[in-house]
Amino acid sequence: MTRTNFKPLAPASSLDLALESLAKNNPESALRRAVPALGDSDTQAPAADLCARALRMLGEDELARRAFKRAVGLLIERALVPHAVAAALALREMGEGDDDVRAIARAFGADAPEGGAIRPPSLAHSKLDPLDKKLTRDELVARARAAIDALPSPSGLGTRPRYPLWSALPEDAFVRFTAALGVRILPEADALVREGDPGESAFILARGEVRVVRGAGDETEDLAALGPGAIVGEMALVTDAPRAASVFAAHAALVLEAPRAALDQAAAEVPELGAQIVAFFHKRLVDNTVRTSALLSALPLNERDGLAALFETRAFDAGTTLIAEGDETPGLYLIAAGLFAVSRVEGEESLRLATLGPGMCVGEIGLVLRRPATASVIAETPGVALVLPGRRFMEVVRGRPTLLAKLYELAVQREDETRSILAVPAEEIEEVLL
Length: 434
Known about the structure:
This protein has 15 helices and 16 strands. By secondary structure, the protein is α+β, with helices and mostly antiparallel strands. It has 3 domains: about 15-165; about 185-290, Jelly Rolls; about 300-434, Sandwich (Jelly Rolls). The strands form 4 sheets. Strands 1-8-3-6 form a 4-stranded antiparallel sheet. The chain has a 4-stranded antiparallel sheet with strand order 2-7-4-5, with no helix packed on it.
């Protein structure tokens, strides 16, 4: 699952290379890269976690526990919440209790003191000289022990940033949420998710960078570059729709995985946790749809959120008919997830006109031009859409002339495209659509 034509955004840092070594099961190489970073105040917090992981792989469990403990405290101090959780989960796997997770919850959960805005974490792209390759395993461990013992004690948080989802959870819900998470290390250029694949997990980036891309081959479109704290693949938790894009590691990445089955179980045990997860991912779905919708791009940013609140969120099973040809159009649909086929009956044949996916809209022709639906729209896969019911359509767009103009332009354009397709002989339609 590696992207062969992948080019990283920036040169790999010492910690990127250490994490890559861990991904390739080479703990000695990881220590050579990570130990020097323990002496740098900008890198020592994540470096402590990476050293601990390398030491654990080498069987140095006692020293690894000490390093993980120091890592949790330093990562809390730097407000690197997902990475702190990853370190605390490693301690839990080694037989420790929930004390470290609870420390994170007290610093950043719902009951934490009010704090400042989130500060973007440093990715620490500095390149430090690695330790000599001639050092033996035991010498590497000795160097790591000395550097870990020399780490400063955490001095406490200057501010306590509020984080989406994490900061909405009371302490017990925070602890139960983390218990549902797993930890993965993704090598550079490997895919975290693949466009079109079914999704069973969401992911929280703890360390590293990922690229979000759509399409294949020469048609690949880069959608975003994301860093620590980013959440990807969350649509898998609210719908069975296939993945709408692929996510690749720009450099090796440390990732928290949230499987849907594990979160469902946690939500059943702690209803408050379930309510917060549903609210968070519903807001993410709406925000992402509003941000990627070509239709809403015509509106000023300050108007989009208010408009999105007027839409209803609906899920559709594969095979569900959203709009039936010849009937009154029931509403305007902004597609959030899934694929939807647009078809029209001509004579005795059903002609496929288009396939619509996330970010697209449908229903504008019938609503704007005031006529029965000119085509049917059917869910090809499970999907989710934001729906503005037809009965509310005019009252919403009447006071938004920019939106109405955009809808009219889109309706006319699609009508012209449909006429062009229908004017082509049936045997050539497939070639035109391609």
